[in-house]
Amino acid sequence: MSMTLRRLTRAATAGLVAAAALTAAAHSAEAADTLGSAAAGQGRYFGTAVAANHLGEADYTATLDREFSSVTPENEMKWDATEPSRGTFTFGSADRIVDHAQSQGMDVRGHTLVWHSQLPSWVGSLGASDLRTAMNAHINGLMGHYKGEIHSWDVVNEAFQDGGSGARRSSPFQDKLGNGFIEEAFRTARAADPAAKLCYNDYNTDGVNAKSNAVYDMVEDFKSRGVPIDCVGFQSHFNSNSPVPSDYRQNLQRFADLGVDVQITELDIEGSGSAQAADYTKVVEACLAVSRCTGMTVWGVTDKYSWRSGGTPLLFDGNYQEKPAHDAVLSALGGSGDPGDPGDPGDGTLSCTATYTRTADWSSGYNGQVTITAGDEPISSWTTTVTLPAQQSVSSLWNGTPTRSGNVMTVRPSWNGTLAAGASTSFGFTVAKNGSDAAPAVGTCTAS
Question: Taking a C-beta distance cutoff of 8 angstroms, is the pair 356, 443 a contact?
């Protein structure tokens, strides 16, 4: 689609997009709090990375459309996807994501204009003069195509080395154009779309360290000289070897104090159960404590498509069921997750509770039982999760239908889904301890 046609299409559909946003907001207010609506109540967005090739999957798009208020194309706006041959731009996959987001009233983050990775081979073969011309042409071509449609752009991505030196990363841009390429990219981007927020984005900068200090010094220098930079993105990929830093909030705040917005741009936290939920809570609370933290983006909709799928790092499991981390994020954002108060009798809300007991125990294993109890209305089905300690494994389960993602079981009824108001049923399972006697964690029960 040409730039002119995109402009005309956007103008013609602006009313429909606005109507979709109002409809979604009204539906959210009537039906239930979601991540996006709860974040909006805090003056922030809550987004996710999106892959165009999953938009045809009904559960994927349903979860995306219901829960999130912002999208970031995962790969579709990178250089190899948008300009595989010099001067020839291909926008089909990225357009699909942008068009879908607009139809749902979502914002779009552009990711990314200048990055050392996912470059087509022709870029690395250019001399310095040609490379400068190509870099600026790429920025103008990509931003020009989406002018007025992108909330914020990751203009330059991951330009600093890991480790203690704070040095710049070797790349075609750094090696041939020198330190000035970042400033030039930001100045070109400002001219290409003056309304878009311009961000620098990087990883392992979440706490105060040599790398984040180097980025801080660059931003401070840019602000002092009038180089156009509006925001800094903190990717926030965490696991047990790289946990949420104790000075995470303080680090966000010191960047905000330079006069830039801060955004959490690629959040995922490996783990499961209450520990993962607690780490997600730390991140959300840090963002809420910094007035210039404008939003958060998790790096994917579902564990099964995550780039770190083995670590189950996202808010929805492989079956699109809400994990304890989802509930923790929603709670931290001030959301309830249900229309009205499920504790109020007679409010028409379908609800259930899940409680765990150990029914048998021996040296190498134990039997556990989860009792499902319907709320004040009859239900026809229920779902809950059981998260086992890392060493343990389930050898059998009865009176329920499990699906597994790592050490998390999502359990649904086998024959016992229909319950009268206040009635109970249960499912049981046998666990091999494998050296751990810790109890599993049972997630929130959801009813339909």
Answer: no
Is the pLDDT assigned to residue 371 strictly greater than 70?
A: yes
User: Which residues are CB-neighbours of 151 under 8 A, at least 6 positions away?
Assistant: 70, 107, 108, 109, 196, 197
d(CA 447, CA 380): 8
Q: Which residues of 267-281 are buried (b: 16+ CB within 10 A; e: fewer)?
A: bbbbbbbebbbebbb
pLDDT digits 0-9 by tens, 122-141: 999 999 999 999 999 999 99
Q: Which amino acid is at 131?
A: L
DSSP string of 90-125, one letter each residue: --HHHHHHHHHHHHTT-EEEEEEEEESSS--HHHHT
Contacting residues for 396 by C-beta, under 8 A, at least 6 apart: 429, 430
- pLDDT tens across 186-212, in order? 999 999 999 999 999 999 999 999 999
What is the rounded CA–CA span in Å between residue 48 and residue 284?
Answer: 14
Q: Is residue 18 scored above 60 in pLDDT? A: no
Listing DSSP states for 156-196 in one string gives: EE--B-SSSS-PBPP-HHHHHH-THHHHHHHHHHHHH-TTS
**Contact, 394 vs 388, CB < 8 A?**
yes
Nearest to 238 by CA among 202, 271, 284, 201: 271
> Beta partners for 264?
234, 296
Q: Which two tokens stand for residue 294?
A: 């404008």
- Single out the catalytic residue among 67, 74, 149, 158: 158
pLDDT classification of 7: cutoffs 50, 70, 90? low
The active-site residue out of 74, 83, 266, 270 is: 266
Is position 67 annotated as part of the catalytic site?
no
| CB contact set of 11 (below 8 Å; sequence gap of 6+) | none
The distance of Cα 323 from the centroid of its chain, to the nearest Å, equals 14
- Is residue 215 classed as helix, strand or coil in its secondary structure? helix
pTM for the complete prediction?
0.73
Q: Can 266 be counted among the known catalytic residues?
A: yes
317 close to 337: Cβ distance less than 8 angstroms: no
Contact between 71 and 35 (Cβ < 8 Å): no
Q: Residue by residue, what is the 3-state secondary structure of 224-281?
A: HHCCCCCEEEECCEEECCECCCCCHHHHHHHHHCCCCEEEEEEEEECCCHHHHHHHHH
pLDDT at 28 over 60: no
Q: For strand 441-442 and strand 382-387, is the pairing parallel, antiparallel, or unpaired?
A: antiparallel
